[in-house]
Amino acid sequence: MYIRGDHAELVVGGRLDVRSAADARTVLHTAVDDGVGDLVLDLSGLDSWDATGLGVIMGVHRRAGRCGRRLVLREVPPQMQRLLVATRLHRILAIEGGIGVESLPRV
Asked: What InterPro entries would the database entry show (predicted)?
């Protein structure tokens, strides 16, 4: 897993899972705490995430809200869009461009 960027926009790539969650949480919380305005997470390079990785995203979302910021997800890969829809988190998280629920393949 890698995270590049600053306190306004970060690119997340690789796997966001139980092995990388602690490091990702630290980097993302620091970005939230040190910035102002929207924090954009570009997920175009993300290969996969598990429940722990999704928990990290939700934790950053809550922390951003407490700091008067907003977490915005950008370029969410289709398989992760399906997970967000299945868990109904697409209704809570800000997703740039939204998710075309009807265009996602059924599983």
From this structure: Anti-sigma_ant, MlaB-like_STAS, STAS_dom, STAS_dom_sf
Neighbours of 103 (CB within 10 A): 8
Coil, strand or helix at 74: strand
Q: Quick check: 8 pLDDT over 80?
A: yes
Element (H, E) at 3: strand 2-5
At 12-57, the pLDDT tens digits run 999 999 999 999 999 999 999 999 999 999 999 999 999 999 999 9
Cα→Cα distances 4→7, 39, 90, Å: 10, 13, 24
Q: Express each pLDDT in 14-26 by its tens digit.
A: 999 999 999 999 9
Domain 2-95 fold is Transcription Regulator spoIIAA (3.30.750)
